[in-house]
Amino acid sequence: MRFVDGTDCPLCGEATADREALRLHLMCQHRKSELTDLSLALLGEAPASA
Ligand SMILES: [Zn+2]
């Protein structure tokens, strides 16, 4: 698990520096707003149970 220092793109595994970088990556590389919203929602909920 590598949640501390960065976030990997859930779609392609690309390593991004942080959640904002991942959001930009999703918008630029994937251009699928539904997947972006879903991914951010999952990221937002993940840390709470850790
Ligand atoms: Zn990606």
Structural write-up:
The relative contact order is 0.19. Helix 1 runs antiparallel to helix 2. The chain is mainly α. The chain has one domain (about 5-50). A hairpin with a 6-residue loop joins strand 1 (about 5-10) and strand 2 (about 15). It has a two-stranded antiparallel ribbon with strand order 1-2. The protein has helices at about 20-30, 35-45; strands spanning about 5-10, 15. Zinc ion binds near residues 9, 11, 12, 25 and 29.
**Which percent range fits the helix content?**
40-55%
Q: Helix tally? A: 2
State the order of secondary-structure elements, H for helix, E for strand.
EEHH
Q: Number of domains in the coordinates?
A: 1
Keywords:
50 residues, binds zinc ion, single chain, 2 strands, 2 helices
Please provide a brief summary of the model.
By secondary structure, the protein is mainly alpha-helical.
Question: Can you lay out the helices and strands and say which pair or pack?
Answer:
Elements: E1 7-8, E2 15-16, H1 19-30, H2 33-45
Antiparallel strand pairs: 1-2
Helix pairs in contact: 1-2
